[in-house]
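Let us practice reading a record.
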Amino acid sequence: MDLKQNFFELFQREPGFDVDLDLLAIQYRELQKTAHPDRFATGTDQEKRFAAQMAAKINEGYDTLKHPLKRAIYLLEQSSIQIEYNPTLDPMFLMEQIELREEMEDIGDAGEEGLPRLDEFRLKTKAVLAGLEAEFVGAYPASLGKAEQAVYKMQFIHKLLSEVKLLEEKILDY
């Protein structure tokens, strides 16, 4: 194993958005077996340090590759594109986000009676996310600018889904 490998190389995967998550989990467990620091408990300090670094890299790689948004961002980073914290987005998309948040606020105002609408809203939002993931796949790697814009939009939708979960917890008083 080599600390200089990217996550796709580490997991012996072709770089790309589509990842077999079951196979990735199997590869993760196999890599952890070979590099787990406990296996080097009687080794030299250098061997222990290397094992700890490899285990950390394996964990980070697995976490990155198993989550679609993190994977998309990582793919862009591998193409020398750094994600901005305050990107310029399509005004129409931003207006849609405002409308979605207003809809979610209305659902929250309905209390427990709003739960069925919240479930529908979640499904609708997940469908939007799936569309953006497909947009990323269609753009990457041929059109990195379009892929980057898809990632920015995916970030918005992920945040919205997090807010949906928080609203549900609030309504159910968790």
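A brief commentary: The chain is about 70% helix and 0% strand.
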